User: Fold this.
Amino acid sequence: MPNEISPTAPKLSKRQIFFRRLLSFVVLWTVILAGLFSGQKIISDCVFLVIMVLLAGAGLWEFYGLVEKCGQTCFKYSGLAGGCLLMVGTFFNLNGMLGLNNSPARVNDFETTFLILFVLGLCVRQFLSKINNTAIFSIAATLFGLMYVPWLLNFIQKINYFRHVDGDGHFYVLYFVLITKFSDAGAYAVGSLIGKHKMIPRISPGKTWEGFGGAIVVSGIASVVFVHFAGSRMPSMNWVHAVILGIVLSATAVIGDLIESIFKREAGVKDSGRIFPGIGGILDLLDSLLFNAPIMYLYLRHVLKGF
Assistant:
């Protein structure tokens, strides 16, 4: 009896992949933001914490998978445990369950202490390893994964619970997430229509300077419109800050996307994972947000707070 040949899934076009990723992103962040704006603090906090830990864990798992595809080793499970503990510990500090309530200095001290102990733990883990002879790379890759995914994602928690400008941190989270995704949409739309000049073809052949300009223009307009309608919930924000943040966040969103492309290209894969069949992984959805989160937090803390 001849073997049956299973049908091959049709290959998705670049446009289909973009819109499916965008839809996945919208669904994911709709759940998060619905929890944040539920009006019930316990629901809001639980939904936020659970999803942030899941995002950090899944993103870190994919990053360590890329490391292994490069033929290198890392302490995957130690890194995953450390990443989840970092997220949960920061949440407890921000909510006053550990130490002073929402003190930035206290949270920074916690993160510093945690990272020191994490590196020491990795060294002890290396002492116990009988098969791993690449200590420097393994420890460095594990630590970098922790810094690249959970540590950068942690800034979303800091934005959400930032109360020193008498505003609502939820709106700042919503603002920077939307502006980042408008940057992605602007880059894709303009790049597809008129893109001719490649930015860095050896890293990402599809990105063009025209698309980069579209990202800045679209996210800049979206930023001004958002602040116009929601500015009353975001003290100290005005159109000047909206323009500055729109430009900065759109530029770093593109850079964040390119950084992940470097890792994927070195690993020889198109997507960071297979959580979303035909679309990609968690890192593909988070790449443009990872570096924008600390920029939004630092602007909020050191610029907006001063006005």
In short: The CA atoms of residues 204 and 258 lie 7 Å apart. Confidence is low (pLDDT under 50) at residues 1-6. The first helix runs from residue 14 to 36. The chain is about 70% helix and 0% strand.
